[in-house]
Amino acid sequence: MSQEIRLQLSLQIRKGVLVYQSNPTALIADMLGSSGPTPGTIHVALGTGLDISLSQIVIPGGWCFIMNLDPTVQPTPNFIEYGINDVSNFFPLGELLPGEFAIFRLSRNVGKEYVGTGTGVANSTFRIKAHGAATLARVEVFDA
User: Fold this and answer.
1) Domain boundary assignment for the chain
2) Cα separations in angstroms, 97 against 50, 84, 85, 89, 128
3) Global pTM value
């Protein structure tokens, strides 16, 4: 089968003289496997965070949706970070304020170590961390 995935997304910014609209705003892609979404809604710990299990994914390299479900926006928002953890170090890639989300394709090499490629050292993991307070997040990963 082909063209099982449709992504519609645009970024529009209007602030003073800055006017921006992203293009294109839609993408149609193929999905090789049929696993996902996993793991779903999770409790994200403050401090060390939580490893995102990709054990249900059969074909790595699929789409990932992450959303911060925390409602706290005042006085200081509780944000989450996602990135790679290698047992003793966390390497943040992005952060999400309450209600924000990110959609991206995970590398087929997440957690693998290669000379010159890959996303970390042996036994590295995809991790999400809370800042401000522990919170809920939705993490949905799919097969490639």
Assistant:
1) 32-141
2) 17, 19, 21, 23, 13
3) 0.88
